[in-house]
Design goal:
- The chain has 455 residues and is α+β, with helices and mostly antiparallel strands.
- Bound molecules: adenosine-5'-triphosphate (ATP).
Length: 455
C-alpha cells in the first residue's frame, strides 16, 4: 500500500478531519480548517501532551500568554532584525523559492545551507546552474530577505498606528513570564514553563498540507536550569520528547534524531526529532539549548532584572534555558499519516482504517442500533456513555457500511444494540483493529472503555 499525502488530504476532507480554509471563496492558500473529527483528534493530542508535560511532570507549570506582545519583545528576541528567509523568484514562471532549499535539494543534501550567506547561496546557484524546480528554467531574481513576521497595527487613528506583530513563536510568552511563574509558584531551579498556543509565520514556501502553514499551534516546554546541569537536562528532554511521540502512536522506525550541524553562537547543542512523512524525513520538533541568551536580552531591553535568586547559596544569576517545541498541527499530520491503512479483508473486501491510539481517537465509541426500531434503547446507551466519552451515533445504512465509516475516522469501539439487548441489557462491542466482537452487559461498558483509552 502506498501512503501518499494526496490520499490523506482526501480522506481528511471527506471524513471531516480538515477542510481547505475559506473553501467557498476558492480557498486561501495554506490555511486549513479543522472539522468535527479533526478538532477532536487535535484536542486529544494537545491533552495527552499537557498531561505528560504539565500534569505528570513535577515542577512544570502551564501558562497561556497573549498572542500580541509589546513590540519590544520582538526586538529583544532578534525577530525584528533577523527573522527572515532568503527568497528567490523564478522570473519565467513567477514561482518563489527559498534559496537555501534550492541549494540543499540540488546537492541532494550533500551541501548544508545552514549558515551560508546570501552571496554564498547565489554563487552556488549560479555556478551549478540550479534550475527552477517548477518550470526548469534558469532565470532567477537576486536573493532578497523575506520577512517572516506578520505585521498588523494597533490604534484607530490613521497615521498614528503602531506596528504590532502576530507572534512567530510562543516561546517569548514563557520567557517574559519566567519570574512571574517563579515568584507565584515558589519554584526552584530546575523548573519548566509549558504553553500551547497559536503562532504565525509568513513562510516563503508553505505547503504539504498541515506540514508548513502560515498559522499553526506550538506546544512548548521550556526548562530553566543552572548552566552546569543544562546539557544533562538537554539529554533528558530529548529522551522525553522521543518517548512522547512514540507513546502517542508514532512508530520508532519512523522517528530519528537529527543533530544541528551549525549552532547559534550562544547554544551548546540543538537537534530535531524527524518523522518519516510521505514527503520524506522532516522535522517534527526541535530541542534547543539556548544558554542565558533570551533572558539576558529581555533583561537588557526591558531594564528589569531577569535573575534567579538561589535560596541556598544566595547567588543571583540568569538561568540557562533548554527549549522543546513541537507543532500541534505537524504532530497531528504525523499521527494521521501513521494511522492511515488500507486493508484487504477475508472475502476480498477492502477497508480504510485509521489505527489511532485510542487515547487520541476523535470518537471513543460509536453506538449503532442494528435496526431503526431499536433506536430508543440505543439513544439511552448513547446518553449514558456520552457523559464520559466523545461518542458517535449512527443508525443509517447497513451495519457493515457503518463499521467502515467508523474505521475511516478511527473509532476504536463500536457498540451494536440488537433485539437481545432489550431482553438482557447486553450489547456487542467490536474492536476496530482486530474487528473481534465480544458481548458485554451495558453496565460494564464505561469501565471497559475507560481502561482501553487510558494514556
Ligand atoms: P522549519 O525549519 O521547518 O521552518 P523551525 O526550525 O523554524 O522549522 P521551530 O521554530 O523550531 O521550527 O518551531 C518548532 C516547531 O513548530 C517545529 O518543529 C514544527 O513542528 C512547528 N512549526 C514551525 N513552523 C511551522 C509551520 N510553518 N507550520 C506548521 N508547524 C510549524
Amino acid at each position: 500500500m502506498e501512503k501518499t499525502m494526496e490520499k490523506i488530504v482526501n480522506l481528511c476532507k471527506n471524513r471531516g478531519f480538515v477542510y481547505p480554509g475559506s473553501e467557498i471563496y476558492n480557498g486561501f492558500a495554506n490555511t486549513w480548517d479543522f472539522g468535527p473529527v479533526g478538532i477532536e483528534l487535535k484536542n486529544n493530542i494537545k491533552r495527552t501532551w499537557w498531561k505528560r508535560f504539565v500534569q505528570e511532570s513535577p515542577n512544570s507549570y502551564g501558562i497561556d500568554a497573549a498572542i500580541l506582545m509589546n513590540p519590544k519583545v520582538w526586538e529583544a528576541s532578534g525577530h525584528v532584525q533577523g527573522f527572515s528567509d532568503p527568497k528567490m523568484d523564478c522570473k519565467s514562471c513567477k514561482q518563489r523559492f527559498r534559496a537555501d532549499n534550492l541549494v540543499e535539494e540540488h546537492s541532494k543534501g550533500a551541501v548544508s545551507a545552514e549558515g551560508m550567506t546570501n552571496e554564498q547561496l547565489e554563487a552556488y546557484i549560479n555556478e551549478h546552474k540550479v534550475k527552477c524546480p517548477h518550470c526548469g528554467n534558469f532565470n532567477w531574481s537576486s536573493i532578497r530577505q523575506f520577512k517572516l513576521m506578520f505585521e498588523t497595527s494597533r490604534g484607530t487613528i490613521e497615521g498614528e498606528k503602531d506596528t504590532v506583530y502576530l507572534r512567530p513563536e510562543t516561546a517569548q510568552g514563557e520567557y517574559v513570564n519566567f519570574l512571574n511563574v517563579q515568584r507565584t509558584t515558589r519554584a526552584k531551579l530546575p523548573f519548566a514553563i509549558a504553553q500551547i498556543g497559536k503562532a504565525f509565520r509568513n513562510e516563503v514556501t508553505p505547503g504539504n498540507f498541515l506540514f508548513r502553514t502560515v498559522e499553526f499551534e506550538q506546544m512548548e516546554y521550556q526548562t530553566f536550569c543552572k548552566d552546569e546541569t543544562s546539557l544533562q537536562t538537554y539529554e533528558t528532554i530529548k529522551q522525553r520528547a522521543l518517548q512522547f511521540v512514540e507513546d502517542v502512536g508514532l512508530k520508532a522506525e519512523n522517528l530519528r534524531f537529527h543533530d544541528h550541524e551549525k549552532l547559534a553562537f550562544y547554544a551548546k547543542a540543538a537537534c530535531d526529532i524527524q518523522y518519516k512523512f510521505p514527503i520524506g524525513w522532516e522535522e517534527l520538533n526541535g530541542i534547543h539549548h539556548r544558554s542565558t541568551w533570551d533572558l539576558s536580552r529581555h533583561q537588557e531591553f526591558s531594564g528589569k532584572p531577569m535573575q534567579y535568586l538561589d535560596p541556598v547559596t544566595n547567588e543571583k544569576f540568569i538561568p540557562t534555558i533548554v527549549e522543546y517545541s513541537i507543532g500541534a498541527d505537524r504532530l497531528t499530520l504525523a499521527i494521521l499519516c501513521e494511522a492511515y491503512d488500507e486493508e484487504t479483508l477475508e472475502g476480498g473486501d477492502t477497508r480504510i482504517v485509521m489505527h489511532f491510539l485510542p487515547a487520541v481517537a476523535p470518537y471513543k465509541v460509536a453506538i449503532l442500533p442494528l435496526q431503526k426500531n431499536l433506536s430508543e434503547k440505543a439513544k439511552e446507551v448513547y446518553s449514558m456513555l456520552s457523559k464520559y466519552f466523545m461518542c458517535d451515533y449512527d443508525e443509517s445504512g447497513s451495519i457493515g457500511k457503518r463499521y467502515r465509516r467508523e474505521d475511516e475516522i478511527g473509532t476504536p469501539f463500536c457498540v451494536t444494540i440488537d433485539f437481545d439487548t432489550l431482553n438482557d441489557n447486553t450489547v456487542t462491542i467490536r474492536e476496530r483493529d482486530s474487528m473481534k466482537q465480544i458481548r458485554l452487559s451495558i453496565s460494564e461498558l464505561i469501565n471497559y472503555i475507560s481502561k482501553q483509552i487510558e494514556f
